[in-house]
Design a protein that fits this description.
The chain is mainly alpha-helical and 130 residues long. The chain is built from 7 helices and 3 strands.
């Protein structure tokens, strides 16, 4: 694993609590959004990052692998070496970044309000007419 020269507090900006109106700007400014979660349901924060055009590194937990497949890079949240290696590999490869952003943008289109509402209507119709 490559060691970075600066202390961690000079390389990473720990924001703490962030107001909703600041999130979009931060997602857009991020070179990489990383969410190595141990437990995750759907992963709304991943969609938010993708919608803002950020490449995503996350863990294959909960529904994430099913929904996000090729639009993210997966890491093992229990292995900090794996997280660091994958972060570096993404940050050092502009083609990978562009590919992740492209796949993310396409995937986000599946989760518009219209598409989500259509899915609910179809599910209710199936319940009504089994």
């Amino acid at each position: 694993m490559k060691t970075l020269p600066l202390p961690i507090h000079q390389r990473i900006d720990f924001k703490g609590y962030i107001q909703n109106h600041d999130l979009i700007r931060l997602y857009q400014e991020a070179k990489l959004f990383t969410a190595p979660s141990f437990h995750e349901g759907f992963g709304l924060i991943i969609l938010e990052a993708m919608a803002a055009g950020s490449p995503v590194l996350t863990s294959p937990r909960g529904a994430i692998p099913e929904y996000f497949k090729d639009a993210v890079v997966f890491c093992d949240p229990e292995r900090h070496e794996d997280i660091a290696e994958k972060m570096l590999s993404i940050l050092q490869n502009e083609e990978v970044q562009k590919d992740l952003v492209l796949h993310g943008n396409r995937l986000v289109q599946n989760f518009t309000l219209e598409n989500m509402a259509r899915g609910y209507v179809e599910a209710f119709e199936k319940l009504k007419n089994p």
